[in-house]
Amino acid sequence: MGGQRHAAVFWLTVAAWPKDVLARFSHSIGRDTEGDIISRIRQRLAEFSQQEARVAQAILHDPGFASSATIDQLAQAAGVSPATITRFARAAGCDDIRDLRMKLAQANTAIPGSELPACWQLRLSAIQQSLTQQLETLPEAHVSRAVSLLKRARAIHIFSAGAADTPFASLLQYRLLTQGQPASVCYDPALMSFTASMLNHDQAMIVFASSAPDSALLATVQQARRQGAGIIMVMKDSASAVHAGDVWLPPGEGHYGALLIVDLLCDGLAAGSDERKI
């Protein structure tokens, strides 16, 4: 019991340390606050130079070997110079090659995903970086506002501005229907115009537009807005979105951004449903 109390007091004291002190302490015991070295290398794959990326791939391919290899052995395995190994260690957030080896040895226990091919790891890193940037720039208040509009809507109408937007519109409709939310999808401009003319304050519209919307679509959206419908614009064109809709949700780069928007909206609705059940 005494040992447990001392441990509790110690960690409560640690929690009160300034962030820079805590970071230095974590670094000194090989437990950096940014996570283990393997995770950091995988997350930063897209940020390394071409030569540094070759070192990263060699390490991820066989962390056990890298944790015990000499600088010359690791350089040979990666096909780079020993000087590149030193530069990589610093780029990865380590003091030197010895610090890198120590952290690799500590992290080299059942590393998930380390057996993935290097090209897949690069792809995974790029996707993770893209989604992280999107989450950092996407205002949480916008997502909350969009979820609020969907919660109060008696019916949800999803407009797909083009062929590239159709998969996301269809997926959102499917997800909403499985959650008990009445949802329809419009692909045809004439049907969109007709649907917009029938909307009112207890309905919501979501527009997916991967490219700049044309004047006809903007006119349709503005008509629905004048009639009181809640409008959510999922598009990159901020000027058109802010002018036409109530909420703007930028999808970021690539199709994973639009999938993230779908997840955030459906998760928000599901969370509200769970709270009502409780």
TrEMBL record:
InterPro entries of this UniProt entry?
Homeodomain-like_sf (IPR009057), HTH_RpiR (IPR000281), RpiR-like (IPR047640), SIS_dom_sf (IPR046348), WH-like_DNA-bd_sf (IPR036388)
Q: Which domain of life is it from?
A: Bacteria
Which SUPFAM superfamilies does this UniProt record tie to the protein?
Homeodomain-like, SIS domain
An example of a Pfam family matching this protein is HTH_6
* A biological process term (GO) from this entry: carbohydrate derivative metabolic process
Name a GO molecular-function annotation: DNA-binding transcription factor activity
Query: Which residues, by range, are in coiled-coil regions?
Result: none
Q: What is this protein called?
A: Uncharacterized HTH-type transcriptional regulator ybbH
Organism for this UniProt entry: Cedecea neteri
